[in-house]
């Protein structure tokens, strides 16, 4: 992907244009994003051949007028010029957060924004039923108005698109504000997730009318993309996702540099298949590439393809903190915590005031158990703004790592008070509530997280755990499956599914799931350089499978898996070590969750789910987290350490051998057990038994 | 402003850990511990270095510690302390310090021990652990609790403050511990690979190197300590807030909104002392309002009413003061608050003494009974409630009452002894001032001026520090008054002016000081017969309107004396009548009564009707004799002698005066001495005259000559005494007499000389010396 100088110039113009237009429409976040990207574009070297001669003097820095800045459409331009002062008034109202007043500048309340048709009384009661929780409810008011057949009319006066967007956007925000006010305290009595933005039906009808009028006039393709975007957002809020998707795609075609539209589109995509589906519908430009990277990251697709695209993009935007963050998050999803945290460190050093996605960084540090660093990051964030959801999450994570769960919950709640849609806070709060044994509240917070973003596998997984604690395996299974669908290559998910099946007595399915976990885990291990030659399997899982086969009284299979487990002594020792301590922990922890957790926390996954780590105050050896990535030389020395699991397998095998009359093998295994100092009592009993039999025979 | 924890408290905690690690040898333990306790306890005014112990800087800790060797060879305590504070290398380290290390300093509670046993942990007995209720233990527990309730950003502020606090010691520490040199600010900055000037550290720590003292150094607790200390000082000494302290307090108050409520009380005290009625009331009510939530059961209502009454009375709103104090008494009775009730009663008693006319209503209601009953009541109550200070002052009040009513000297002295006994045995230092003041007045009354002088000197030498400024000013005045009596004006004025302006910043004291200085001046100018100056000073003094009845009377006496000297006997007589009328049974004083009687007799004498003053003088003398007010007795006898002179009873006069002469000399009052001498002159001359007129004879002439010579000697003595107190009139009179005597003895040259001198003196009248 080569970019010529002209392309870069154009790119600059486009971003500049996007920044200005977004801020004109008070889309602050998108404007910020565009400006950041604009700032990070690789500096243009005037003339590649003679880079020394600085021609800046000759180059009239301000002379080239951004060709995109002008309003293209003459009608629109005329309208905008006409409304200029009104627009200024409305914008100033918007900036002072007087949304209703802002809307009233262009949409005087005397002209009813919605025609008083017969549909409205019918639509009202339905609107009440349409809670966001119900998902794609058929009774959505936005469809109902159409299904009734009333011709949607444009209720708005003749306005430029810019002004109309501002006015409607203000209306929308006013509704959101009121909705937030209605819900009051986070998880309080009135916060039951049923509050709705009451402006939505009006907006939906109005926009629909406006857009159909446009298409009737044949101006469908001359839209600027803004109102389309707003309509999509409104549809999205009404859970009308398919329609929203088409409108968003149209919007990004018309106005590709509006990041907000891309983000909404990303939120719509639940899986990689969805992404593949719409990929062809998207325009072909640099924004699509950025979107692709972002989307892949959000969908945990840390593939080579993603990396290469990201690298290309970073060539153009070398200093973009956004892209760096994506890079770091990709590493994070790949469990490469060290590199991820290094990238975040760099970002922090260059722009310490930047708080965006610091919460992810804190998650990474949490997993790495880097308490001083986490405290430091929290300190930095607090220094910039202590009332940002990101800051609160970082601090909450810190307290969580210190096992001060009450304080952690306090900070997560604060984050949610500041922004109810702050996803990670809901999930993290769920973890804290699990920790505090408040399972019901935990379920509620996980549910909110899932409602905000259906791609958060941690929340799904958390839900599963919570139900497992409550001994409701049927529910738990469902949620584990969702989590596993989102992270098909994450063995922990499959382990959870497997143990759930096992608990429900569906042994075959359980074995299948566990085998899947085995495959995912081994694939993962193979993926890493250094460990590639060796096929590393998780002994824990193997042992589980073996015991399950035993339950099915398939002794041969069981013995085979036990043997495999034993073989892992020379393969996956550091992992096993982690397991051992985990299990010790669990003997005292709550019984229900313990079993599954002990099983699934085998390899070091995202620590947010590995509850056990929180109990442990003693610093965990780094090797357990990075055993897979670290060089073999250190690992080699630890290879032959038998663990509790392998010892169990050994014992089982010894007994198995005894049953089958293979006394020598049994004796050998029991002897090994005695040497290792594990299960000594059992082993000695076994040896006595063997001796007795031998004497019998002899 | 943080609630409790400040950087220096963290360093005290570090010091405590050094101590509990057993690194402090026995020889240094006392110094370390006393430094710790000085920082933790309320500020002690007896501590001369309290400023150092309030918010100690790190240099002050160094001062204390660097001299001491530790148990580690080659390392001083300071080194170990540095090592400790620099081991806190990041915010997380601070968290760990507070959450893990601090609780482990304490002995385990019973529950913890039981828990340990249940978990099968062997009881460990290594290391020193602080008892939970010891001062250090309480501090550690409080610190732990306070840290737990800190929000994250508060702990960040604390940490940043601590980093700045210890920064000056970085070089010292790094020199000793070159091996583990770290970033002077935060170990995390090192990890990130930036030096401390980088952008990031600036964001996190701000401009760390500037010396500017910033917030977080003073906690609410510290502000409270300071204000409590200041309120204590104000209540103890009655002064005002010093300027530097005011600046400091202002900084504390403006730095944050949650300043301690006690601040308003302090402002109230200050405004009160400054005589600023409006702000005093404003602040007092503000204080009440802010403290309302803490005593919703009206537990402090009576005290606030008492406070109100006191301040109302001080600003002369008597009726309101009385209604307030009556309410206070009612509430105190209702809530059985004996302490407050006793205070109220005591106050009411003194108020009644000072303003009898305001108390009629209360008197009539029979709340207190008569004075004696009131005092008995107070004494009994004070003893019951073991309020020794109140008891001591009540006994003193009793002594004063007895003195004023001229009762038995023995009882009065007994009261003094009892009061003194209580003061000594109960370790009270507060009533000492009042005690000395009253005792010196008592000595002055019985004519033992040197003892009175001694008392005031004792106060000046021993009790000047740490006693209410009011008493200090009064005693200084007494002291100077005695000096002035002896004619030592220069010294008297010097002492008066030596009173530090700091002590006179309160409006009231400044007022009394001015008044007292004015009185001394007045006395001198009257003696000098400087009419202009006297009238000037008089006008000023009368404008001051002091509330103290005794002082007003003193001024009245001076005025009468002046009028008398001017020869306006009619007016003087009217003034005496007026003064007599102001006397009420409540503020009746035997001394004033005698003084008034004597004055009246003198006026009559001057107006040429000495015989009419005879009965007055007799009455004065008999009263004085009966109540052993000896100083007044001598004066009364002098007055009587003057009457006798007019009756030509020269022999008797001479005998009378000569018999009391030693006592008069002992009284060290030059005016009285001069007067007595002049009476003796007249008496001797009278005797001589009688001898010359009655019979002739050598023996008689000899005798006459002897009397004349004696008279001449007395004239000289009287002249000297008059000269001492700069009494021009007396001097001229003596000079005139001397000239006459010379003339009579037939020595015209000398007579002429003396006459010239007389004229010279007359010219000097009123002129400046």
From TrEMBL, chain A:
Biased composition (Low complexity): 587-599
Alphabetical UniProt keywords: Cell cycle, Cell division, Mitosis, Repeat, TPR repeat, Ubl conjugation pathway
InterPro entries: APC8, TPR-like_helical_dom_sf, TPR_rpt
Top-level taxon: Eukaryota
GO cellular component: anaphase-promoting complex
One Pfam family here: TPR_11
Sequence ranges of the TPR repeats: 389-422, 423-456, 457-490
Gene3D superfamilies (alphabetical): Tetratricopeptide repeat domain
Region (Disordered): 113-156, 569-639
Entries under PROSITE patterns matching the protein: TPR
SMART domains, sorted: TPR (SM00028)
Domain Cdc23 intervals: 10-328
PANTHER family assigned: CELL DIVISION CYCLE 16,23,27, CELL DIVISION CYCLE PROTEIN 23 HOMOLOG
Protein name, UniProt field: Anaphase-promoting complex subunit 8
Organism for this UniProt entry: Penicillium subrubescens
Automatic annotation (TrEMBL), chain B:
Domain of life: Eukaryota
Listed GO CC annotations: anaphase-promoting complex
Residues making up the signal peptide according to the UniProt record: 1-22
Gene Ontology BP terms: anaphase-promoting complex-dependent catabolic process; cell division; positive regulation of mitotic metaphase/anaphase transition; protein K11-linked ubiquitination
Domain called Anaphase-promoting complex subunit: residue spans: 264-354
Entry keywords, A to Z: Cell cycle, Cell division, Mitosis, Signal, Ubl conjugation pathway
Family membership: Belongs to the APC5 family.
Record function comment: Component of the anaphase promoting complex/cyclosome (APC/C), a cell cycle-regulated E3 ubiquitin ligase that controls progression through mitosis and the G1 phase of the cell cycle. The APC/C complex acts by mediating ubiquitination and subsequent degradation of target proteins: it mainly mediates the formation of 'Lys-11'-linked polyubiquitin chains and, to a lower extent, the formation of 'Lys-48'- and 'Lys-63'-linked polyubiquitin chains. The APC/C complex catalyzes assembly of branched 'Lys-11'-/'Lys-48'-linked branched ubiquitin chains on target proteins.
Protein name stated in the entry: Anaphase-promoting complex subunit 5
Organism: Penicillium subrubescens
């Amino acid at each position: 992907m080569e970019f010529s100088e002209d392309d870069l110039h154009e790119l600059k113009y486009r971003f500049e244009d996007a920044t200005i237009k977004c801020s004109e429409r008070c889309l602050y976040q998108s404007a910020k994003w565009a400006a950041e990207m604009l700032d990070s574009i690789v500096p243009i070297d005037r003339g590649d051949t003679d880079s020394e001669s600085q021609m800046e003097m000759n180059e009239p820095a301000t002379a080239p007028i951004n060709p995109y800045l002008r309003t293209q459409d003459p009608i629109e331009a005329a309208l905008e010029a006409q409304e200029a002062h009104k627009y200024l008034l409305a914008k100033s109202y918007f900036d002072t957060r007087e949304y209703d007043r802002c809307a009233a500048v262009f949409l005087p309340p005397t002209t009813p924004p919605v025609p008083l048709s017969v549909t409205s009384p019918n639509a009202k009661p339905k609107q009440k039923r349409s809670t966001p929780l119900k998902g794609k409810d058929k009774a959505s008011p936005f469809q109902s108005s159409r299904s009734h057949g009333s011709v949607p009319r444009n209720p708005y006066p003749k306005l430029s698109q810019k002004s109309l967007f501002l006015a409607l956007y203000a209306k929308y925000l006013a509704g959101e504000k009121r909705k937030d006010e209605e819900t009051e305290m986070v998880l309080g009595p009135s916060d039951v997730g049923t509050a709705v933005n009451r402006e939505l039906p009006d907006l939906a009808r109005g926009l629909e009318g406006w857009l159909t009028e446009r298409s009737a006039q044949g101006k469908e393709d001359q839209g600027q993309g803004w109102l389309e975007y707003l309509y999509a957002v409104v549809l999205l809020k009404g859970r009308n996702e398919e329609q929203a998707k088409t409108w968003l795609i149209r919007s990004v075609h018309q106005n590709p540099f509006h990041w907000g539209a891309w983000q909404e589109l990303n939120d719509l995509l639940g899986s990689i298949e969805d992404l593949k589906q719409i990929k062809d519908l998207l325009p072909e430009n640099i924004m699509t590439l950025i979107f692709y990277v972002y989307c892949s990251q959000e969908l945990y697709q840390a593939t080579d393809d993603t990396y290469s695209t990201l690298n290309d993009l970073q060539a153009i935007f070398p200093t973009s903190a956004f892209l760096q963050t994506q890079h770091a998050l990709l590493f994070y999803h790949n469990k490469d915590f060290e590199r991820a945290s290094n990238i975040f460190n760099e970002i922090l050093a260059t722009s310490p005031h930047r708080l965006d996605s610091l919460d992810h960084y804190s998650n990474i540090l949490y997993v790495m158990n880097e308490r001083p660093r986490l405290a430091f990051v929290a300190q930095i964030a607090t220094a910039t703004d202590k009332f940002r959801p990101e800051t609160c999450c970082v601090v909450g994570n810190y307290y969580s790592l210190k096992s001060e769960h009450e304080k952690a919950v306090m900070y997560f709640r604060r984050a949610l008070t500041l922004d109810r849609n702050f996803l990670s806070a809901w999930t993290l709060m769920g973890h804290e509530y699990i920790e505090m044994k408040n399972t019901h509240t935990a379920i509620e917070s996980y549910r909110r997280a899932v409602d905000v973003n259906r791609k958060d596998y941690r929340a799904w997984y958390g839900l599963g755990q919570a139900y497992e604690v409550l001994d409701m395996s049927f529910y738990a299974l469902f949620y584990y499956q969702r989590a596993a669908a989102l992270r098909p290559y994450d063995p922990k998910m499959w382990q959870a599914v497997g143990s759930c099946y096992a608990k429900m007595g569906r042994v075959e399915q359980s074995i299948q799931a566990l085998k899947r976990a085995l495959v995912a885990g081994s694939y993962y291990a193979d993926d890493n350089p250094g460990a590639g030659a060796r096929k590393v399997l998780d002994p824990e899982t193997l042992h589980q499978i073996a015991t399950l086969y035993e339950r099915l009284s398939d002794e041969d299979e069981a013995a085979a898996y036990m043997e495999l487990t034993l073989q892992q002594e020379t393969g996956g020792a550091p992992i096993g070590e982690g397991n051992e301590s985990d299990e010790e922990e669990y003997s005292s922890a709550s019984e229900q969750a313990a079993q599954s957790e002990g099983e699934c926390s085998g390899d070091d996954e995202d620590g947010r789910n590995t509850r056990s780590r929180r109990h442990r105050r003693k610093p965990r050896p780094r090797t357990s987290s990075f055993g897979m990535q670290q060089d073999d030389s250190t690992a080699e020395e630890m290879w032959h350490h038998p663990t509790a699991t392998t010892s169990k397998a050994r014992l089982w095998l010894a007994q198995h051998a005894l049953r089958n009359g293979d006394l020598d093998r049994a004796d050998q295994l029991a002897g090994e057990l005695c040497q290792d100092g594990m299960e000594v009592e059992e082993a000695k009993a076994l040896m006595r038994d063997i001796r007795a039999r031998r004497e019998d025979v002899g | 402003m943080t609630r409790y924890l400040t950087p220096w408290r963290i360093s005290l905690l570090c010091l405590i850990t050094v101590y509990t690690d057993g690194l402090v040898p026995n020889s240094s333990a006392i110094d370390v511990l006393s430094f710790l306790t000085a920082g933790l306890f309320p500020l002690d005014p007896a501590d001369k270095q309290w400023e150092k112990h309030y918010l100690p800087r790190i240099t002050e800790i160094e001062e204390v510690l660097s001299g001491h060797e530790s148990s580690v060879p080659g390392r001083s305590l300071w080194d170990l302390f540095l090592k400790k504070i620099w081991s806190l290398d990041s915010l997380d380290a601070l968290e760990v310090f507070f959450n893990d290390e601090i609780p482990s300093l304490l002995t385990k509670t019973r529950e913890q021990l039981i828990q340990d046993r249940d978990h099968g942990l062997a009881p460990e007995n290594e290391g020193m652990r602080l008892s939970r209720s010891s001062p250090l233990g309480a501090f550690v527990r409080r610190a732990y609790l306070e840290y737990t309730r800190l929000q994250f950003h508060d702990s960040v502020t604390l940490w940043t403050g601590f980093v700045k606090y210890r920064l000056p010691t970085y070089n010292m520490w790094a020199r000793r511990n070159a091996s583990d040199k770290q970033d002077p600010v935060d170990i995390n900055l090192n990890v990130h690979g930036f030096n401390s000037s980088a952008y990031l550290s600036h964001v996190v720590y701000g401009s760390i190197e500037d010396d500017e003292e910033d917030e977080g150094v003073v906690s609410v607790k510290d502000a409270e300590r300071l204000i409590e200390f200041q309120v204590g000082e104000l209540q103890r000494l009655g002064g005002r807030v010093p300027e530097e302290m005011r600046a400091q307090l202002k900084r504390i108050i403006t730095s944050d909104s949650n300043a301690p409520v006690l601040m308003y009380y302090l402002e109230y005290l200050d405004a009160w002392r400054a005589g600023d009625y409006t702000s005093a009331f404003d602040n007092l009510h503000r204080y009440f309002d802010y403290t309302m939530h803490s005593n919703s059961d009206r537990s402090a209502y009576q005290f606030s009413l008492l406070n109100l009454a006191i301040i109302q009375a001080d600003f002369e709103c008597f009726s309101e003061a009385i209604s307030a104090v009556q309410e206070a008494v009612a509430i105190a009775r209702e809530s059985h608050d004996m302490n407050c009730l006793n205070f109220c009663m005591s106050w009411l008693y003194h108020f009644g003494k000072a303003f009898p006319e305001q108390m009629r209503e209360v008197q009539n209601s029979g709340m207190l009974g008569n004075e004696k009953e009131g005092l008995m009541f107070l004494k009994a109550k004070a003893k019951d409630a073991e309020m020794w200070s109140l008891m001591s002052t009540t006994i003193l009040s009793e002594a004063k009452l007895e003195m004023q009513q001229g009762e038995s000297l023995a009882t009065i002295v007994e009261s003094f002894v009892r009061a003194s006994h209580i003061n000594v045995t109960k370790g009270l230092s507060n009533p000492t001032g009042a005690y000395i003041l009253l005792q010196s007045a008592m000595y002055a009354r019985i004519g033992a001026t040197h003892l009175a002088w001694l008392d005031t000197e004792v106060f000046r030498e021993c009790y000047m520090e740490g006693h209410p400024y009011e008493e200090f000013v009064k005693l200084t005045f007494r002291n100077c008054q005695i000096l002035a009596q002896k004619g030592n004006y220069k010294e008297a004025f010097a002492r008066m002016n030596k009173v530090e302006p700091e002590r006179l910043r309160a409006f009231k004291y400044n007022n009394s000081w001015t008044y007292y200085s004015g009185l001394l001046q007045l006395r001198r100018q009257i003696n000098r017969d400087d009419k202009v100056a006297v009238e000037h000073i008089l006008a000023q003094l009368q404008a001051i309107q002091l509330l103290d009845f005794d002082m007003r009377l003193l001024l009245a006496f001076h005025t009468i004396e002046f009028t008398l000297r001017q020869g306006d006997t009619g007016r003087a007589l009217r003034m005496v009548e007026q003064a007599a009328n102001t006397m009420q049974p409540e503020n009746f004083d035997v001394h004033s009564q005698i003084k008034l009687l004597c004055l009246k007799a003198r006026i009559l004498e001057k107006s040429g009707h000495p015989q009419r003053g005879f009965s007055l003088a007799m009455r004065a003398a008999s009263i004085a004799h009966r109540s052993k007010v000896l100083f007044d007795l001598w004066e009364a006898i002098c007055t009587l002698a003057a009457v006798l002179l007019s009756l030509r009873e020269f022999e008797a006069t001479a005998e009378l005066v000569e018999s009391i002469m030693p006592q008069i000399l002992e009284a060290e009052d030059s005016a009285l001495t001069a007067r007595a001498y002049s009476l003796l002159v007249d008496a001797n001359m009278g005797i001589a005259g009688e001898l010359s007129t009655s019979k002739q004879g050598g023996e008689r002439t000899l005798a006459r000559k002897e009397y004349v010579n004696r008279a001449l000697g007395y004239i000289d003595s009287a002249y000297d005494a008059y000269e001492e107190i700069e009494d021009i009139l007396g001097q001229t009179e003596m000079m005139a007499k001397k000239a006459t005597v010379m003339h009579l003895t037939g020595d015209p040259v000398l007579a002429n000389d003396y006459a010239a001198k007389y004229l010279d003196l007359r010219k000097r009248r009123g002129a400046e010396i």
